[in-house]
Design a protein that fits this description.
Strand order of the largest sheet: 1-2-3-4
Strand content: over 45%
CATH superfamily of one domain: YVTN repeat-like/Quinoprotein amine dehydrogenase
Helix content: under 10%
Structural class: mainly beta
CATH class of one domain: Mainly Beta
Number of strands: 27
Shape: globular
Oligomer: single chain
Number of helices: 1
Distance between the termini: 47 Å
Largest sheet: 4 strands, antiparallel
Order of helices and strands: EEEEEEEEHEEEEEEEEEEEEEEEEEEE
Length: 329
């Protein structure tokens, strides 16, 4: 059976999270176009190291990084970039969803969960679906509640395309709830709110849906003009959501790209409900990924040119820009 981690180019594959901040808030990880991971020290803006492979997980303190490489899963010291043996790493520093990596057989609708530290035996999860719909797995991710696996699927029936998603309970292996996925757009990123136990997903054109992971209840469905499928919830307020937006402008001097902070507690409109815009953070490039920092004050945005902006949400200003130095030829 061919198990696939779903890795080609991080920008083309929704199973790969391009930006991650360590739970300690000290370290920023960037999965690059070259299938490597840049490790940035947030306090100083210093590039600590670049490790081969695709980001899989990190220890709570950000000191150890797990990547998937052509040679298999590898562990790295983020301060030095040196490889570590799994037996020499304290398992208490890793949460289940950070150390456990899902590998999928896309067309058999199966996922094997492999513990990179060897604490648990591999677990196979089968996705329930009617095979008459010719389904295939598109994206998959373990939720930070350490109890849920979220997948999206697509296929066709009677010549018509369809797409959907599921949240699967890991203890029982059964489906907890289903959700819609927009069949007309590229595979949507699977976004989570760690602090609020939420799933954020695009379920229609310009439509952001927020689900409670435990109950499966849809807490909000919001229309967002120019929504590009990238979203993150602020840490202290579950109703403040950052979204990446592209909106055409009449003037070439005005950037069409921005990160908008929406208040989804108070919605306006009828069938197409919208959230109030609390702040607009202009960007000069398309935004590929967003992540809110554990301090509740900062947000990182990854631009299409590879630059990462470190925003102060209270001031609405960029505090730092993380980018690779270019050596003159």
């Amino acid at each position: 059976m061919a198990w696939d981690y779903g890795i080609t180019n991080p920008e083309d594959d929704a199973t790969v999270k391009m930006l991650t901040v360590s739970p300690s808030g000290n370290t920023l990880f960037h999965s690059t176009r070259e299938n490597t991971v840049d490790v940035w020290e947030i306090g100083t803006g210093r590039l600590l190291c670049t490790c081969p492979g695709i980001f899989c997980g990190t220890s709570d303190d950000g000191a150890i990084l797990i990547t998937n490489t052509p040679a298999g899963l590898k562990l790295w010291e983020t301060q030095s970039g040196l490889e570590r043996e799994s037996a020499a790493v304290s398992t208490e520093l890793f949460q289940f969803h950070q150390r456990t990596i899902p590998f999928a057989n896309r067309f058999k609708l199966s996922l094997e969960l492999r513990d990179s530290l060897g604490l648990n035996d591999p677990q196979v999860v089968n996705v329930e679906h009617d095979l008459r719909y010719y389904p295939a797995l598109d994206a998959w991710a373990l939720a930070p509640d350490n109890r849920s696996l979220v997948v999206t699927l697509s296929g066709e029936i009677a010549g018509q395309d369809w797409a959907s998603g599921q949240c699967i309970d890991l203890a029982s292996g059964t489906r907890r709830f289903k959700f819609k996925v927009n069949k007309y757009q590229s595979v949507p990123p699977i976004n989570f709110s760690v602090e609020h136990n939420q799933l954020l997903i695009s379920d229609d054109i310009y439509h952001l849906a927020i689900f409670d992971l435990t109950s499966g209840r849809s807490t909000r469905e919001v229309w967002v003009n120019g929504f590009t499928n990238v979203a993150a919830t602020t840490v202290f307020d579950p109703w403040l959501v950052a979204v990446a937006v592209w909106e055409p402008t009449q003037s070439a001097a005005v950037t069409p790209f921005s990160v908008q902070i929406l208040n989804v507690e108070h919605l306006i409109g009828g069938r197409m409900q919208r959230a109030g815009v609390e702040a607009v953070l202009p960007e000069d490039q398309a935004v590929l990924d967003l992540v809110c920092a554990p301090d509740g004050v900062h947000l990182a945005s990854l631009l299409s040119n590879g630059v990462i902006h470190w925003w102060n949400l209270e001031r609405g200003k960029i505090e730092a820009a993380f980018e690779m130095a270019v050596n003159p030829e």
